[in-house]
Design brief:
The chain has nine helices and seven strands; from the N terminus they run E-E-H-H-H-H-E-H-H-H-E-H-E-E-H-E. With 260 residues, the protein is α+β, with helices and mostly antiparallel strands. It has two domains: 116 residues, no CATH class; 104 residues, Roll (Chitinase A, domain 3), CATH 3.10.50. The protein has a four-stranded antiparallel β-sheet, sandwiched between helices. Helix 1 packs across helix 2 and helix 4 packs across helix 9. It is elongated, with a radius of gyration of 28 Å. The protein starts with a strand and ends in a 13-residue tail after the last strand.
């Protein structure tokens, strides 16, 4: 049985809370739920000790306990604001995060095959390779062959044209192929993905550009501020754990959940 300064957290409470903690096993979910409930109880008890009241009792959109916890953290947790030097240092160390996205226009012909069917995949690869040879002899036949042979119903009727795509919209293998092509160029070999084998043509590419520091500054301030707040909240919770009487679960030194 788990208790926090004499206040019991029931198994029913833990079971209900576990649904909000996806984990590899029910045991792991129950453990994470237990930690979350202990932290919540610690914060509510501290708020009561400080005589903090619900700041907006008429607001029905947020549970009273959540508002009280937010009031407690706002009052008790202090963290440094990111200064200009820290922001510039973060920008210089993470320039790739501050680029406009690459934009591609591409076309493909898909020969579908499931990833767990080796014979099916070999047939798809062979069909893709044969079609690639046809395209090398006559590149202008791409649209016709896409309409005749592609297994992608969304692009097939458009001659294989996928329209504009950005990173994250396709598979890593597909993106890697696009990165290695110049506009108008066809892939050198069929490209295998979890969907099967693709013949890919890059039609157009607009490479992203580096955003200047001035355009990234507000994002960096928010990110560094949120990171500092997260660390400060964890430290504050560890202080509460250190002075509390907690039975039935070991928390000292453990990572505790972020309280929003």
């Amino acid at each position: 049985m788990i208790s926090v300064n004499g206040k019991t957290i029931s198994d029913d409470q833990i079971s209900r809370e576990a649904q909000y903690h996806p984990a590899p096993s029910r045991e792991a979910a129950m453990h994470e739920a237990s930690i979350a409930l202990v932290v919540r109880e610690l914060l509510l008890q501290e708020a009561a000790a400080l005589d903090l009241a619900d700041p907006a009792p008429q607001d029905k959109s947020i549970a009273p306990e959540e508002r009280i916890i937010a009031t407690l953290l706002d009052r008790e947790v202090r963290f440094p604001a990111a200064d200009e030097e820290a922001c510039r240092r973060y920008y210089d160390a993470n320039r790739e995060r501050f680029r406009s996205p690459d934009l591609f226009e591409a076309s493909h012909i898909l020969f579908a095959a499931r990833p767990d069917q080796p014979e099916e995949r070999e047939r798809a690869r062979a069909a893709a390779a044969a079609t690639l040879e046809e395209l090398r002899r006559d590149a202008s036949s791409f649209e016709r062959l896409a309409k005749e042979r592609s297994a992608d119903p969304e692009s097939r009727d458009q001659g294989g044209h996928l329209g504009q795509i950005t990173r994250g919209q396709t598979t890593p293998e597909f993106e890697a192929c696009l990165d290695g092509l110049t506009p108008g160029e066809l892939c050198r070999d069929p490209v295998g993905t979890r969907y099967g084998y693709h013949l890919i043509r890059l039609d157009r590419a607009i490479r992203g550009r580096q955003l200047p520091y001035e355009m990234a500054r507000e994002r960096i301030i928010k990110y560094l501020g949120a990171s500092a707040w997260t660390r400060a909240v964890h430290q504050y919770i560890q202080i509460l754990i250190g002075k509390a009487s907690i039975e039935g679960i070991e928390l000292a030194g453990a990572m505790t959940p972020l309280v929003q």
